Amino acid sequence: MKLSLKVWRQKNKEAEGQFKDYALSDISPDMSFLEMLDVLNEQLLAKGEEPVAFDHDCREGICGSCSMMINGKPHGPESMTTTCQLHMRKFKDGDNVIIEPWRASPFPVIRDLVVDRSAFDRIIQAGGFISVNTGNAQDGNTLPIPKPDADSAMDAAACIGCGACVAACKNASAMLFTAAKVSHLGYLPQGQPERQRRVLKMVEQMDGEGFGNCTNTYDCEAACPKGISVKNIARLNRDFLKASIFG
Amino acid sequence: MSSLLHFLRSTVFTKIVMAISGLLIIGFLVGHLLGNLLMFAGPEKINGYALGLKNLGPLLWLVRIAMITAFGLHVWSSIELASRNRSARPIAYDTKKSLKSTLASRTMLVSGMAILFFVIYHLLHYTFGIIQPNTYYAGGYRMESTGEIVHHVYNMVVAGFQNPFIALSYMIALAFMSSHVSHATSSAFQTLGVTNPNINKITSKIGPALAAIFLIGYLSIPLGVMIGVIKKAPPQEHMQGMSKECPDGPNCTCD
Ligand code: HEM
Ligand code: SF4
Ligand code: FES
Fold this sequence. Notes:
The structure holds two protein chains of two kinds. By secondary structure, chain A is of the alpha+beta class. Chain A folds into two domains: 3-100, Beta-grasp domain (Ubiquitin-like (UB roll), Roll); 118-246, Fumarate Reductase Iron-sulfur Protein, Chain B, domain 2, CATH 1.10.1060. Chain A is built from eight helices and seven strands, in the order ββαβββββααααααα. Chain A has helices at residues 33-46, 118-127, 147-157, 164-168, 175-186, 195-209, 219-223, 231-246; strands spanning 3-9, 18-24, 69-70, 73-74, 95-100, 109-111, 114-115. In chain A, the strands form two sheets. Chain A has a five-stranded mixed β-sheet with strand order 2-1-5-3-4. Chain A has a two-stranded antiparallel ribbon with strand order 6-7. Chain B is an all-alpha fold. Chain B has a two-stranded antiparallel sheet. Chain B has one domain (2-86, 105-251). In chain B, 68% of the residues lie in helices and 2% in strands. Chain B has ten helices and two strands. At the A-B interface, helix 6, helix 7 and helix 8 of A face helix 1, helix 2, helix 4 and helix 9 of B. Protoporphyrin IX containing FE is lined by residues 15, 18-19, 22-23, 25-26, 29, 74-75, 78, 82, 105, 108-109, 112-113, 115-116, 177, 180-181, 183-185, 187-188, 191 of chain B.
């Protein structure tokens, strides 16, 4: 199939970027979106041009690196799917494809489609430790966890830190990400001792990084490749309120 | 203590201020609607109701101060958060699609500002009588029950909405208000941390439902006037001895 690409090119953090058009032909519908970009880059290298920089690692939908906005949607047209898992059969022959980096001031573009998502790492770091005794791990059966809680904790822990929630949000808010990270420990007994401190610190860091605030439009939930639920945001709000008043 | 300071400085707190002040205003809107619907019950009822409100004295002022505070806090928090949100995405996307958000949820600032302008206009119109002074002083009303002469709220409203431009301006404002309320009410529960799935089944629908009730309820009054269901009250017998305290003030026609 043939495609017309419009790709954001930017040399480095300081440089001004602009869109560039590229025409591709002979793209197999069985390729992943990243493989399509690999083809583009080989052609660019053959012509002596700079390849398009994009993040990728696992190429199996679990690392959260392959961030890019495709035709106005984070990770492209397919829901619950990262860019590496998106296949070209989701596009039609002759399609125009616009590819842009995430846009949020806490996620500066460092080159082409690559943004610096360290702000997320700092939010996780701000959450701090959980108290665990050293020595042998205790027998799992001595820590009963209700099945619904275990499921909710696992669902929240599925967040891969890709940033699609921030990218999709009209306010560039990181509430879904932060809420997922607060919840996955908050649902478990191991997360209880530091539960209040954790939510206060993580929200403080999130605000400090300059993310926008949540206006409950829920575009984040629809954009999330892991289907993280916005109920985690309500949970964060409640934990935060409790921790502030009673903590 | 330090966690309290933390709390007061965070965006989550600002959002909670917005939710609580918004819910207070919604509570007011419910009461205001019920009172206004007395327009359908005729001049005796609505004029008596208006008089009753006036006679509440300090209690009325308590409600007024609470509403002004809620409104002020609501507008403050919206400006605070909106300016943060603006600076969080300095470079816009070339192409950006909305996924599951509603139009109402994406235009809260616009609908909110429209409401703010409307509230000022509405107060100037029916509370202070500046927009249409001739209909504000629409002739006093003598209560059939007590004989007391009172402000003829009924005729003032009828005369107001008989002007098609005024009626239209209220209808447009109502559209913005219901759009705001349809997202806001459900959203406030999320902000206040309600996660129970059984409760959420109700809270997710409460916004659109309340918006529909507000829209139909409030619209019924200008529409009722325009189609003639609510008509001007017939003139009463001559009201004697009412020149000084006459609620018609400078336009008084009784002697
Ligand atoms: C009839 C009057 C109004 C009512 C009943 C009302 C109610 C509410 C409620 C309940 C919320 C939800 C808070 C939350 O999401 O937790 C809200 C949000 C909001 N309001 Fe109002 N409001 C009114 C007027 C205004 C005015 C005058 C403005 C200011 C210009 C405004 C701007 C906003 C904004 C920007 C939001 C946040 C948007 C969002 O969270 O999605 N509102 N309003
Ligand atoms: S919540 Fe979803 S969209 Fe946001 S970072 Fe985690 S996985 Fe990505
Ligand atoms: S490359 Fe790892 S999720 Fe796409």
